[in-house]
UniProtKB/TrEMBL annotation:
SUPFAM superfamilies xrefs: Prokaryotic SH3-related domain, Zinc beta-ribbon
Protein origin, superkingdom: Bacteria
Positions of the Protein YjdM C-terminal domain: 44-114
Name this protein carries in UniProt: Alkylphosphonate utilization protein
Family statement: Belongs to the YjdM family.
UniProt organism field: Acinetobacter tianfuensis
Residues of the Protein YjdM N-terminal domain: 2-30
Classification via InterPro entries: YjdM, YjdM_C, YjdM_N
Length: 114
């Protein structure tokens, strides 16, 4: 029986331990049927329900205060070439650079696809 590659580091040396699959290279553990579930859950949508992808351009739909700064990302600001972060635990699932501000992370619920 052929075991799937590690979903985290793509190592081909995964092995079974009970009902878990384990990667010896990165120590990632997952259930065999979990791989299909995480791919389905990894879809990130904007405020209007459009599916976002790496490299898309989005527009901010709400003034966003930047934590630890007096700067604000204004409504209507276009953000080009976004990068999605499907495993974001804090809800900030878009990594991007905003002109005049720099590199920040955004929540997909505050943007719309341009």
């Amino acid at each position: 029986m052929s075991l799937p590659n590690c979903p985290k580091c793509q190592s081909e040396y995964s092995y079974e331990d009970g009902d878990l699959l384990i990667c010896p290279e990165c120590s990632h553990e997952w259930k065999a049927n979990e791989e299909a579930q995480t791919e389905a859950e990894a879809v990130i949508k904007d405020a209007n329900g459009n599916v976002l992808a790496d490299g898309d351009t989005v527009t901010v739909i709400k003034d966003l205060k930047i934590k630890g700064s007096s700067s604000v990302v204004k409504v209507g600001t276009k953000v080009k070439n976004i990068r999605l972060l499907p495993e974001a635990s804090d809800g900030h699932d878009i990594d991007c650079k905003v002109d005049g501000i720099g590199a920040i992370k955004l929540k997909s619920e505050y943007v719309k696809k341009a």
